[in-house]
């Protein structure tokens, strides 16, 4: 028996930790079935190098929040993130992915 893969979208958002609740609340409102948060992210972008440091507060570091959703949830998530990207630095990536258990990601079997 082989696994069947189903197309989905992966969204990765890298933002200052102080904005984590904004992003996770949005994902909860659009009924993303889950997300992963990776703290203390480092990287280099057009604002120069940003080093990960353990600080007194996670809110001062960069975090990456990842989720996998059906395609129809991408636009509501993008619209919801627009206000934060209009005011603050950050980046978002949307990629095509395939999952073997689509029911785990908010889409029932067809």
Bin the strand percentage: 35-45%
Total tally of structural domains: 1
Distance between the termini: 18 Å
Q: Please write the CATH class name.
A: Alpha Beta
Main pleated-sheet profile:
4 strands, antiparallel
Major beta sheet, strand line-up: 2-5-1-6
- What string, H for helix and E for strand, traces the elements in order? EHEEEEHE
Helical fraction: 10-25%
- Per the CATH scheme, the topology name is Alpha-Beta Plaits
- Report the CATH architecture: 2-Layer Sandwich
Unreliable stretches: none
**What's the helix count?**
2
Radius of gyration: 15 Å
Mean pLDDT: 86
Inertia-based shape: globular
Tell me the structural class: alpha+beta
Number of strands: 6
Short descriptors:
110 residues; alpha+beta; Alpha-Beta Plaits; four-stranded antiparallel sheet; two-stranded antiparallel ribbon; 2 helices; globular
How are the elements arranged and paired?
Blueprint: E1 6-16, H1 20-29, E2 36-39, E3 43-45, E4 48-50, E5 62-69, H2 74-87, E6 90-99
Antiparallel strand pairs: 1-5, 1-6, 2-5, 3-4
Helix pairs in contact: 1-2
Describe, in short, the structure shown.
The chain is an alpha+beta fold.
Describe this entry's structure for a reader.
This protein has a single domain (6-104), classed as Alpha-Beta Plaits (2-Layer Sandwich). Helix content is 22%, strand content 35%. It has helices at 20-29, 74-87, and strands at residues 6-16, 36-39, 43-45, 48-50, 62-69, 90-99. The relative contact order is 0.33. The model has no long low-confidence stretch (mean pLDDT 86).
């Amino acid at each position: 028996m082989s696994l069947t893969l189903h197309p989905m979208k992966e969204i990765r958002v890298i933002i200052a930790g102080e904005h984590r609740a904004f992003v996770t609340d949005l994902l909860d409102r659009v009924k993303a079935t889950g997300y992963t948060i990776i703290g203390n992210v480092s990287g280099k972008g057009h604002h120069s190098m940003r080093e990960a440091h353990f600080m007194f507060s996670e809110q001062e570091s960069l975090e990456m929040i990842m989720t996998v959703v059906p395609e129809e949830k991408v636009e509501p998530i993008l619209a919801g993130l627009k206000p934060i990207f209009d005011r603050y630095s950050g980046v978002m990536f949307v990629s095509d992915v395939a999952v073997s258990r689509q029911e785990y990601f908010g889409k029932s079997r067809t």
